[in-house]
């Protein structure tokens, strides 16, 4: 990986641990994990909401058409009488 031997990678990891410390690395890992978890949840939550909004739009349109049809029928009945 990146032209590093396993021994060089181990030395690099030890140096990183000494510079940053285990607590900072643990916190960074936890933050990264929480961010990924939140992103996945947001992706799953976003899909049903979009579908619900689409169905609500269709329901609203259907209701509008029904109301207009009822008004037209009432108008025709008044004209015939």
UniProtKB/TrEMBL annotation:
Its main location: membrane. The chain crosses the membrane at residues 6-22. It is a single-pass membrane protein. This is Sec-independent protein translocase protein TatA. One of its GO terms (biological process) is protein transport by the Tat complex. Part of the twin-arginine translocation (Tat) system that transports large folded proteins containing a characteristic twin-arginine motif in their signal peptide across membranes. TatA could form the protein-conducting channel of the Tat system. The Tat system comprises two distinct complexes: a TatABC complex, containing multiple copies of TatA, TatB and TatC subunits, and a separate TatA complex, containing only TatA subunits. Substrates initially bind to the TatABC complex, which probably triggers association of the separate TatA complex to form the active translocon. Keywords: Cell membrane, Membrane, Protein transport, Translocation, Transmembrane, Transmembrane helix, Transport. Residues 45-81 are annotated as: Disordered. One of its GO terms (molecular function) is protein transmembrane transporter activity. Belongs to the TatA/E family. It is found in: Cell membrane. The keyword Nucleotide-binding does not apply. NCBIfam families: tatAE. InterPro entries: TatA/B/E (IPR003369), TatA/E (IPR006312). One of its GO terms (cellular component) is TAT protein transport complex. It comes from the Bacteria. It comes from Rodentibacter heidelbergensis. The gene is tatA.
């Amino acid at each position: 990986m990146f032209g590093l031997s396993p021994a060089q990678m181990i030395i690099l990891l030890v140096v990183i641990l000494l510079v940053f410390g285990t607590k900072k690395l643990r916190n960074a890992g936890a933050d990264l994990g929480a961010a990924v978890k939140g992103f996945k949840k947001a992706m799953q939550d976003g899909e049903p909401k979009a579908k619900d909004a689409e169905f609500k739009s269709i329901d609203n349109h259907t209701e509008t058409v029904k109301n207009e049809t009822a008004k037209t029928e009432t108008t025709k009945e008044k004209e015939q009488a």
